[in-house]
Design brief:
binds S-adenosylmethionine, 320 residues, 3-stranded antiparallel sheet, 19% strand, alpha/beta, 10 helices, 8-stranded mixed sheet
Length: 320
């Protein structure tokens, strides 16, 4: 346990119009991010499982190699990077295009007395990252969790750079937004939800709107098939594809009796098996957990992933 600061290495400000637009919207959001995301029950549930997806892979790599060098891209408040950095013997580079997030990570790292040698913070849009020596690469693990790559204009080139900068046998773990046809986005745009769901984003041309704001955060929405194909064409072996938040994404943001009754009615109409499991439950938190547990039972079935709000991938680079 240490007490000195984790430094932020600034490599590049946003360069393209797209990158500047993302940064302009993300910067103020970074100030409220922790309170907003952690107070959102379905996202907090998802974060249990996406973190587990990363840590399972990290532990496997550590067992094979006896070390872990990781790059966490779009680290945001650093929840994944810090979990990795707390693994004995891990060295983590956490990158984000938005300064505010890195300052938040530095503060948290100090608060939890993280060994500063285990974490390097880099400010740069990933497209401008040079993968130069001294920043931990080549890596055993690269992560980009929670829609990061949706906000990268040239995500295919970025995937190629990840592949090139992974050690043989290394892994890439990511989660991206589900497509416009995923249940919560589809129902929202068809005005089929009689209340506001917990997931704040709405889809518009060219990106997403967060909350009630009018500004459009630039984003692309590759389908599961497109993303998988891009990984495979580069040379990755795709080991796992899993969904996060199907009906759970439709959980009401305000859990009034009326909204919970509407939520149950929606589930009754769409999925009688799930309805049977929640029909008699009263406590909204217990209902949500039951829904999430139910969804885990089909979250790995390739034909059932289209309705999930987020989709996770574990892909590996072959050993030499
Ligand atoms: C939804 S947050 C995800 C945060 C974190 N990975 C997590 O799981 O909690 C998306 C993050 O991607 C970052 N980001 C967006 N575009 C980026 C880019 N081109 N390069 C690096 N980071 C980017 C944003 O600043 C933001 O922190």
């Amino acid at each position: 346990m240490q007490n000195s600061n984790v430094e932020i290495v600034t490599l590049s400000e946003p360069v393209t119009t797209w990158q500047s637009k993302v940064d302009d919207i993300e910067e103020p959001f970074s100030m409220i991010y922790d309170a907003d995301e952690w107070g959102n029950p379905p996202l907090a549930q998802m974060n249990r499982f996406d973190t587990r997806m990363v840590l399972n892979e990290a532990d496997r790599l550590m067992e094979c190699n006896g070390r872990l060098s990781a790059l966490d891209v779009g680290t945001g408040p650093g929840r994944i990077a810090m979990k990795l950095a707390q693994r004995d013997g891990a060295r983590v580079t956490a990158l984000d295009a938005t300064r505010g997030y890195l300052e938040l990570v530095a503060k948290t790292a100090q608060r939890i007395r993280l060994d500063p040698d285990s974490l390097t913070l880099v400010e740069a849009p990933i497209e401008e990252f040079t993968y130069e020596e001294g920043l931990g690469g080549p890596y055993d693990l690269i992560t980009a969790i929670f829609g990061v790559l949706n906000h990268v204009e040239n995500w295919q080139e970025t995937l190629q750079a990840f592949y090139d900068n992974l050690n043989p046998g290394g892994s890439f773990v990511s989660s991206i937004y589900g497509t416009n046809e995923a249940r919560v986005y589809r129902m929202r745009s068809n005005n089929e939800l009689p209340y506001k769901p917990s997931l704040v984003q709405t889809r518009v041309d060219g990106g997403i709107r967060l909350g009630e704001g009018e500004e459009v955060l630039p984003a692309k929405f590759p389908s599961i098939r497109e993303f998988r194909q891009a990984l495979e064409e580069i040379g990755f072996e795709v080991e796992v594809i899993q969904g996060f938040l199907d009906f759970a994404a439709c959980f009401p943001s305000e859990t009034t009796d009326e909204n919970i009754a509407e939520y149950k009615a929606l589930i009754q109409a769409e999925c009688p098996d799930l309805f049977e499991r929640i029909e008699s439950l009263q406590d909204p938190r217990v209902i949500l957990i039951e829904v999430v547990e139910f969804e885990r039972e089909y979250a790995l079935e390739p034909n059932n992933l289209g309705d999930f709000a987020y989709v996770g991938f574990v892909a590996r680079k072959r050993k030499l």
